[in-house]
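WARN  no MSA supplied for this record, continuing single-sequence
INFO  ligand: S-adenosylmethionine
INFO  echoing inputs
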Amino acid sequence: MKNIVILRLGHRPQRDKRITTHVGLTARAFGAEGMLLASDDPKLSNNLLDVAQRWGGDFYVKNNVSWKSEIKKWKDEGGKVCHLSMYGVNLPDAVPEIKECEKLMIVVGAEKVPFEIYEMADWNVAVGNQPHSEVAALAVTLDRIAEVDPLGAEFHGGELTVVPMECGKQVIDHRQTEQGSE
Ligand code: SAM
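INFO  complex generated
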């Protein structure tokens, strides 16, 4: 798998800001290149971009996209679309096919998803056929379809890096390191 982008549908700025932020953070942390937000919430998009800048990597967020145009464009460019829904086929049955594609858009909803999405998707995939959360569904999917373990990913060019340790918290602030070395 080369390019993975997340399409977030149905985001309601007042109600969903925390969970949509978590969708974006999870997408970035588990290997997606960006998130398309099919709602207008520039504050949320900017917050996510701010995190990406501080913690490294090239994650992007596109605010207020038209989901239909983005899906059509993606498919015209040869991309495939996987819609996550508890009503779909169970993820383990779809993983081998999904892993073969080079460009994947993963669609997650908030409120009720338009039926057209089910028809436009190449796969409607359930992460188990029980209701839970788009954040959980996305994390499990990105982990299962990954060619390289996403937990080993390195994010370059950021301002902050965690130093993993058994007890305690240590973060390198590269801005201070750079100033200190001048
Ligand atoms: N009530 C909404 C509907 O019927 O479309 C879904 C609400 S659910 C909390 C929000 C999103 O979480 C869904 O659109 C789907 O993307 C994801 N989701 C929840 N449970 C899932 C599951 N078991 N498998 C895959 N995705 C799931």
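Residues 3-156 form a domain with the Alpha/beta knot fold (CATH 3.40.1280.10).
INFO  checksum written, moving to next record
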